[in-house]
Request: fold
Amino acid sequence: MHFVETPSEFKNLINKLESNDQFFFHLFVEEHENHPIEAKPLILLIKNINNNDSFAVSFSHPDVVNVDSRVLKKIAESSCKKLIINKKDTNHIVSFENSIDISLHVYYRNKSKIEIDLPRCKSNKSIPIMMILKKFNDTFKSIVKALDTFESPTDKLINDLSEVLCGMEKSKIFSEKNNNLLNTQYNLYTPTTRPSNRYNNINFLALNKKEGDRNDYVSRYGSDGAIAMIDYESYHLRLFANHIKYDLPNDSLHTYLGKLYHGKEELTEDEYELSKKITFNLMYGGITQDVIDNVPFMKAIHDYIMKVKDFYEKNNYVETWIYKRRIYSDIFEDTPTPYKVFNYLLQSAETERNCIVLKNILKFIDDKKIKLPLYTYDAFLFDIHKTEFQSIKEIIKIMNPTNQFPLKLYVGRSYGDLVEIHV
Reply:
């Protein structure tokens, strides 16, 4: 292990990193319990995959001569290929160019996780440097074994999701009770790639509207702002229809399908609610023969599921619709039903399309008084200053550029009192 402590040693390191070699990088932070947005770098460890040449660059560890943390950017910009763990969180500190989140590659292949588990203590500064080095070297063995999990479509998705969700976490969400901006934290370690979001014992994707859980979240701009939510109508159904190029009406799909289920042109409120339940039960549990015979769109879903079933049984994987990422059989705990495989494809399509849309929205609002602190599967939550309300129309265009994904807009003082409005 070479400890980088002088300008000449740093220059030597940079020369090594300006190569075609592949390196394992891991940036340890001072306090693991802090949100990544507040993390401070402790020490960066680097190991060459090809020859095991190793380097340590310390920024604040008491056992080592420390260097200015500004050199981290220079290291991150080096041209070598970098294998890292948890790119989204690391992006809050520094963005490693030409890097691969090898841990997520492994997880999306077989649901196993590569981590470096340090002893739990208040500050990682108190952990002896030799223990940190041992943990790093032990993990390196797993990294080498995981190299064959790399696939370009998966890498593209990981990079885009890491960038987008890091950007959303930087927005934070304003709590009226705390009179402060709160951190949220997206978790990418989910089998379908659909992120979860929980921080400080708050599950931000499961805030209960009926129980008032959403009422605390208001605009950071006070009386000069508002909360807006834009959500997709029947998102999964339309994602599928778009994938197979099946024409659907822009009106409510639950009404459209309900008329076919009930064999009538006008639905009561109870029949409408029942039609929603019928649709979800069919899509997630199995489409019955009478529905196949009488509802053409459901027949199209059934036929596609059978086609996917045959492909999966032959190849032990299926391919996602947008990024063309492979979902392998190891992702499923047991032999999956055809409908389970289909629903993994649906949730993956939701995540992949959302990723592209979110990336475009974040670019559009970058110089505006608009924040995008949260998205919950088919709904995007915005915190908007009154001078930017006209931008909602542009955001709607970004979310639905081809008019194949109808949207609903809700605006209110808080996340809990949103009212639908028409633009």
